[in-house]
Amino acid sequence: MDGRGNAPVTLEEVARRAGVSPSTVSRILNGTARVRDSKRQAVERAIADLNYRPNVMAQGLARGSSMSVGVITQDIASPFFNEALKGIEDSLAKAGYAPLFVSGHWKKEKEVECMSLLVARRVDGVIVLTGMIDDASLMEYAARLPLVITGRNLHGPNVVSIQANNEQAGYEATCHLIELGHTRIAHIAGPEANVDAQQRLEGYRRALREHGLPVDERLIATGDFHESSGLLAVNQLLETRLNFTALFVANDQMAYGARLALYRKGIRVPEDMSIIGFDDLPSSLYTTPPLTTVRQPAYDLGKIAGDAMLGLIHGQDYAIPTIPLQVIVRESTMRRRGP
Predict the structure, then answer these.
(1) Which of the residues 15, 119, 204, 301 has the least number of beta carbons within 10 Å of its own beta carbon?
(2) Which residues of the chain are under the pLDDT cut of 50?
(3) 3-class SS at 190?
(4) pTM
(5) How far is CA 138 from the centre of its chain?
(6) 97 in the Ramachandran plot: left (φ > 0), alpha (ψ -120 to 50) or beta?
């Protein structure tokens, strides 16, 4: 027993054990030291022997940093955003940063409120996941602190945009249905103000046009990315009494609601109606039947956003990798039967 009880080990104790100065230990910890390997190894052994835990917050404050990053999401409870947040958290953790999560709930005024809160907390940067704040306002924020935003195409100092090719993915999702022989394809779009949703809608329209099929605006309904809106949208489409045999839905959650609406109407999937979603949420593998969908790697998207933020904070260039979007064929789509 050393009589210390639960008192934390200090940096000075590590220095004494390693036979170096406290400033040397500090510089080795923050990666700025240029010392011999033998000295570095001595410090690392002392840290391990004493089970030293550096005070990350104190280190950050010494550098004028809060060691925190604000993250504006739309809905923390959303399965898609939840996966993206995990990716951000894992990315930031490797550098000792902590995320502060807030929700905008698809409302610009709420996002502005969240941004003000995060700036007041002196975060080192802000990641905006598919936000509603206009581009001009975002560029003004970027003049004050590092900004990473998904679903936009902004260019300028202190800002990184991350975009997946949603238009191409919407095109390929619709082409999958066309290749199965469907010629009357309805679409449940996401919110009109959402860039990703509008790009998926444009991909749907392009696929129809390129295959010589009419774009019937009456077969396009709008939802809000939640399950209930998918259910309501299908009811709206069926009330038009227009014939359609396939349905491209702008996200998996709305596809779940659409599937329920069809079940309640006695419309079988995929025998009577083929459905393809978007996102490939973990639960899509376990729906009845398993959902054909476009795989969007939400966790990877979050990790890329976190890595980009760390690059901005440390003044390092970070090349944004391509985000692959892939049609995953399961059992909710099949070749059209009959005329």
Answers:
(1) 119
(2) 1-3, 61
(3) coil
(4) 0.77
(5) 18
(6) beta
Q: What's the rounded Cα separation, in Å, for the pair 266 and 258?
A: 13
Per residue in 261-310, pLDDT tens? 999 999 999 999 999 999 999 999 999 999 999 999 999 999 999 999 99
Rounded Cα gap, residues 315 and 124, in angstroms: 12
**Environment class of residue 118 by beta-carbon count within 10 Å: exposed (0-12), middle (13-18) or buried (19+)?**
buried
Residue 85 near residue 99, CB atoms below 8 Å:
yes
Cα–Cα distance for residue pair 295/297, rounded to 1 Å: 6
Q: Are 315 and 125 in contact (CB under 8 A)?
A: no
How many angstroms separate the CA atoms of 179 and 269, rounded?
17
Examine the domain organization and report whether 30 and 76 are in the same domain: no
Domain assignment present for 154: yes
Range of the domain at 197: 166-295
pLDDT of residue 59: 54
pLDDT at 1: 40
pLDDT for res 3: 46
Tell me what pLDDT residue 337 has.
Answer: 80
Structure tokens at 156: 């300028």
Total domains, the chain: 3
Torsion over CA: 104, 106, 112, 113 (sign): negative
- Amino acid letter, 139: M
Same domain, residue pair 303 and 290: no
CB burial of residue 6 (10 Å; 0-12, 13-18, 19+): exposed
- From CA 12, how far away is CA 19, in angstroms rounded? 10
**Alpha-carbon span 99 to 28, nearest angstrom:** 25
Q: What is the pLDDT of residue 8?
A: 74
Joined tokens for residue 75: 């809905």
